[in-house]
Design goal:
The chain has 129 residues and is of the alpha+beta class. The protein contains 3 helices and 4 strands; from the N terminus they run βββααβα.
């Protein structure tokens, strides 16, 4: 058995000489801890070619146009402008982004038309929809 050198979690094996049976080898066991994994099921996004994307881009352009870089005279004033820029961009993002659930339909080709068609079918349950 090859174990991770220096790992207290993976270096605590147990030798079982009474499990040997007729072989000259003994069985070894190790318990490997498995941590829970987090799977993200939603994310913030701005759909391509949407009104939200247009508003976001306009706001970003406006933020950059309004930056007054002539006041940068030292590191502190540079930090203030960078922080102001970051704050404005973050505000623009959160005011235009929407939270979407990641599902089996979370494909690049899946769009609002698909959502509307699916909703229409679920309501009517007809083959035409």
């Amino acid at each position: 058995m090859f174990l991770c050198n220096g790992s207290s979690e993976l270096n605590s094996h147990i030798i079982h000489p009474d499990w040997r049976l007729t072989l000259d080898h003994v069985l070894l066991t190790i318990t490997i801890p498995i941590a829970e994994e987090f799977f993200q099921s939603s994310k913030l996004t701005i759909p391509k070619k949407s009104k939200e994307e247009e508003k976001f881009i306009k706001k970003v352009i406006s933020i950059f146009k309004s930056l007054n870089t002539s006041l940068i005279t030292n590191c502190e004033s540079l930090k203030q402008i960078v922080n102001s820029l970051a704050s404005g961009l973050e505000q623009a993002w959160f005011s235009n982004a929407r939270n979407i659930n990641i599902t089996k339909h979370s494909k690049k080709w899946w769009n609002d038309d698909c959502n509307q068609s699916l909703s229409k079918y679920r309501e009517s349950k007809t083959l035409e929809d």
